[in-house]
Amino acid sequence: MSLPVFPTMPPLRSDIPSSMEQIDDVLRPVLAVGVACVSREWEQAPHRHRKGQLLYAVRGVIHCEVESGVWIVPPQCAIWIPGGLLHAARGVGEAQCYCLFVDADMVQVSSPALPDSCCTLAVSPLLRELIIKAASFPTLYALNGAEERLVATLLDELATAPVEDLHLPLPRDARLRQLADLLLAQPADKSTLTQWASRIGMSERSMTRQLLEEIGMSVGRWRRQLHVIIALQRLAKGHSVKTVGMELGYENTSGFVTMFRKAVGQPPARYLAERKAAANA
């Protein structure tokens, strides 16, 4: 059975192919799709396609999972997914997004290289307008004309977009994956490292050393990154900063705000307010 592009989020145009197989068959450098705004959550089952994919969140938050980690995409950011990579995605909060499918085989050799791994990108006002404009093109827009020139500019901007550090890497080792699952299920648990290690059948020293070797993060930093991801998802659903901080186990709101500011450069309320304002601009 072919997989719809967004099972619960209809494209804004009726000429968009309805399956990944059909999208891979569209012989254009870029296929841009605008997706309608919905209030309920949506989810894509794990799938892959030949073309690279960009998911740009206008409103709401996109949560994307691949084998090596979890990415969070707040408003006015996007996730780049290289072609052939198995991934799943879901939307949290009031969702509106644009989706680009990029055919690397048709991109001009002179164009800047796109990322070769999954990453979250900041979307500039210029890149945003280029994406929106490209989404208005017919699926089979004319080659060697104005539309293809705009697509080339879009790809130039995409290749130079700043990478946002909103990634939660996942370890390969089975016991460390169990640790990840436990922390994901109990983000507010304040157990010691010795207690966490005991639960997964490792010594504290082995657990901390191997986690650092596999993902380049200490347990503490990995957990803080997890808290940022969970916080963005819950804030997007309308939870208050105070409530989210308590749900994540912080003793007071200021402790949670300090952690969030260190991770993303702004306190949570201002971070989301600026992105909401940009979406409504």
Characterization of the model:
- The chain is an alpha+beta fold and 281 residues long.
- The chain has 2 domains: 20-164, Jelly Rolls; 171-280, Orthogonal Bundle (Arc Repressor Mutant, subunit A), CATH 1.10.10.
- 40% of the residues lie in helices and 23% in strands.
- The protein contains 10 helices and 9 strands.
- Strands 1, 2, 3, 4, 5, 6, 7, 8 and 9 form a 9-stranded antiparallel sheet that branches.
- Strand 3 (52-66) and strand 4 (69-73) form a beta hairpin.
- Helix 2 runs antiparallel to helix 3 (146-159) and helix 8 (241-247) packs across helix 9.
- It is globular.
Question: What's the short story on this structure?
Answer:
By secondary structure, the protein is an alpha+beta fold. The chain has ten helices and nine strands.
Structural Rg: 20 Å
Question: How many DSSP helices?
Answer: 10
Specify the CATH class of the largest domain.
Answer: Mainly Beta
Approximate shape: globular
The profile of the biggest β sheet is: 9 strands, antiparallel
As for the CATH topology of the largest domain, it is Jelly Rolls
Structural class: alpha+beta
DSSP strand (E) fraction? 15-25%
The beta-strand count equals: 9
Reported CATH architecture of the largest domain: Sandwich
Q: Give the H and E element order.
A: HEEEEEEEHHEEHHHHHHH
